[in-house]
Every structure is written in structure tokens, then in C-alpha cells.
Amino acid sequence: MIQPSFTEHSEDIHPTTRFRAFESPVEAELGLKVDSARQWVADRLNRKVSTTTFYNWRSALDFIQDRYSIEDLEAICLFASFVQAGETLKSARQLTDAHYQELERNNHA
User: Fold this and answer.
1) By C-alpha distance, which of 107, 74, 80 is closest to 93?
2) Considering its fold, how many domains does the chain have in total?
């Protein structure tokens, strides 16, 4: 199985997308709108992400919505890391789902 190159490096994320994007509890509850979400993912992956690419990734994960939580965006980043590692969209979706199922099992163990 290909391991994603997904690492936690929040200090590298541009403050306008990670921190200032969620300045109030209300904004954090509502999540980021599509373009801000795309930019957050791009910053997290440390690469440019076109709107079309973001739409393809969110569609592959059935995340077609108006606003995105940090958890949603982290799932998109994990999925994207599998795609960038050479996985097909289908296998990247399966690997992402398996990752979160394993986390869920560990939380209930």
C-alpha cells in the first residue's frame, strides 16, 4: 500500500487560510466556503490546486457542499496525497475510507 506524504505542518500554513479563516466560533461552525476551502487544501499540500482539481477531489469523496469543516478538508488532503502518490481516484477513495474506518474502530476499541 502506498503511504501518503501527508504530514502535520500547521506552522507552514498561511495564516489567512488556516487561522484568520476561523476568527470566530460562528465561522468555525459554518466552515469555509468553496474557494477558501480550496486555498486551505492548497496551502496544506504546499502546492497549487486548481478549482477543477478541487472539484474533482471533492466529487470523488461525495463532499459536494457549500462549506467545509477542518475535518472535511483534512480528508480531502489525505485523499489528494494518495492521488499524488499515483493512486487512481477510486483506489484513493477506498484508502481514504479505510483510514477513517480504522480510526473509528480504534476510537471504539
Assistant:
1) 80
2) 1
pLDDT tens by residue, 48-69: 999 999 999 999 999 888 889 8
Q: What is the C-alpha to C-alpha distance for residues 47 and 14, in angstroms, rounded to an integer?
A: 12
Q: What share of the chain is helix, strand, coil (3-state, %, to 5)?
A: 65, 5, 30
Q: What range does the domain containing 19 cover?
A: 10-108
pTM: 0.70
Dump the DSSP string for 75-90.
HHHHHHHHHHTT--HH
Residue 45 lies in a domain: yes
Rounded to whole angstroms, the Cα distance separating 99 from 96 reads: 5
- Taking residues 90-106, report their average pLDDT: 94
